[in-house]
Amino acid sequence: FQAVLKEFQKAQRLAAERETAYTPFVPQAVPPSSYTAGEVDTRSDESAEQRGLLVQSRRQEVLLLDNEIAFNEAIIEEREQGIQEIQQQIVRYDCSDLLGHVKKNSKSIYAADDIGTHIENSRAATVQAKSHLVKAAKTQRSNSSLTCLLLVIFAIVILIVIIVLAA
């Protein structure tokens, strides 16, 4: 979202720079010598009028761009507020969920009045976990030895097939 905002601001600055640097080219026509002085004045009045219209249309374009920018900024602000509201809802939900867990667990902790029972249960679980780890290590070693043996047998069979085919 921030990247889009920065890109929009960059485009906005570029447009403003180009707008200030741009001056419309209105060619100053040199009237032929056959024109009278009145015709030359009419032509210069028309070109001044054209320049005035061009300046006015440019001002309207600038106003439209400013309005569009203001509208986009309002949309961005509205979306930021929506995001903040969602974040606050998530925090509230997480806090209430955490409070529920604390209440639930605090009841079970205080229900057991013998800390020694908890220690003994932890020790038994640790011993059982240790035996599972030893068993898993033996199984792993056995499986790795079996895999190695199968690879050696497979290599010998391939070697015999190659020798028979070569002979």
Automatic annotation (TrEMBL):
The chain crosses the membrane at residues 146-166. Keywords: Membrane, Protein transport, Transmembrane, Transmembrane helix, Transport. Residues 1-56 form the Syntaxin N-terminal domain. It comes from the Eukaryota. Residues 40-49 have a biased composition (Basic and acidic residues). Residues 113-162 form the T-SNARE coiled-coil homology domain. GO terms for biological process: intracellular protein transport; vesicle docking; vesicle fusion. InterPro entries: SNARE, Syntaxin, Syntaxin_N, T_SNARE_dom. GO terms for molecular function: SNAP receptor activity; SNARE binding. Residues 26-49 are annotated as: Disordered. Pfam families: SNARE, Syntaxin_2. One of its GO terms (cellular component) is SNARE complex. Belongs to the syntaxin family. This is t-SNARE coiled-coil homology domain-containing protein. It comes from Gossypium lobatum.
